[in-house]
Design goal:
The chain is mainly α and about 290 residues long. Helix content is about 75%, strand content about 0%. Helix 1 runs antiparallel to helix 2, helix 2 crosses helix 17 and helix 8 packs across helix 11.
Length: about 290
């Protein structure tokens, strides 16, 4: 965002066009992650930037621009008929996301590929996109803004309009849901067997209290938000509990995968839309003195 602001302040047609290209990529990528449909993402990109044009020179810092832009894009995504508004915003409890003993056994035996190498494959990109879209909208929005767009907890709270503590709760559940969906998709041939086990009552044996406490605090631990005393306790637990280590590694892998996923808009179409935006930006700026007068 800072680069876009610097380019806008140069106030030349070339610099403004480069700034619009950066903002186009940001809004399109965000919209694809939230909505999953290129047509909706393209419409959102164009409408959000059109609405933003008169305000772009007025932003004093990149954080203000970032929060405002994502807030407008979020509201537009929620309006799409194929977007998040049609999906049910069901709250998910941590107990629903606790791994089964069977799943922990598989995690202990598996050695997953490096996510950065794996994501070079088109099939894996498709699977990740599908997994993100299966995360309920209530949690997906936080996942996209925090882990995929790189906003801080406080910035996400400003965009969505809830407390930071609520964002942290939703983020942890979103990460767990994403990891769960990726696991299901990566082991598609075994889903039937897993469901059979679940239906026969072989759901997780009650995990020890320390494991459950560890499970509830994994995202804060990963993000360095746990105080020193609890960090020492969690590290001690991890040294003695291989299942928790395996689960933490799989959660880190899921987060890493979504962080390096970046949808891009068709270059030709983006250039066409950007030329239109540039003309409208110049007209909007030219009209500002008259409006003030």
């Amino acid at each position: 965002m800072q680069q876009a602001l610097d380019l806008i302040r140069q106030n030349s047609p070339e610099s403004v066009e480069r700034a619009l290209a950066l903002l186009q990529n940001t809004v399109y990528s965000f919209s694809m992650k939230v909505c999953g449909h290129p047509e909706d993402a393209e419409d959102t990109m164009q409408e959000v930037l059109l609405k933003s044009l008169p305000y772009l020179p007025k932003f004093e810092n990149s954080q203000a621009l970032s929060v405002w832009l994502y807030k407008v894009a979020r509201n537009r995504c929620l309006m799409n008929r194929r977007g998040a508004k049609n999906a049910r915003n069901r709250h998910v409890s941590l107990d629903e996301l606790m791994p089964t003993e069977f799943e922990l056994e598989k995690l202990l035996k598996s050695t997953g590929p490096d996510p950065e190498v794996n994501l070079l494959r088109d099939e894996t990109r498709r699977r990740l996109r599908e997994a993100v879209l299966k995360v309920p909208p209530l949690y997906r929005m936080v996942l996209v803004l925090h882990d995929m767009e790189g906003l801080s907890t406080s910035e996400v709270a400003s965009v969505i309009g809830v407390r930071e503590g609520t964002i942290r709760v939703r983020l942890h559940r979103a990460r767990l849901l994403l990891r769960q969906q990726l696991t299901h998709l990566e082991n598609a041939k075994r889903i039937v067997a897993d469901r059979t086990r679940a239906s026969t009552g072989k759901r997780p044996i009650e995990r020890p209290r320390h494991c459950r406490e560890m499970f509830a605090a994994l995202s804060d631990y990963m993000d360095g938000l746990v105080d020193d005393e609890h960090t020492r306790e969690m590290r001690k637990h991890l040294n003695d509990c291989k299942p928790c280590v395996a689960f933490l590694d799989s959660l880190k892998s899921a987060v890493q995968q979504c962080r390096i996923y970046e949808p891009t808009c068709d270059t030709g179409r983006a250039e066409e839309l950007r030329r239109d935006l540039l003309h409208k930006y110049e007209a909007a700026i030219a009209a500002l003195p008259k409006a003030h007068a």
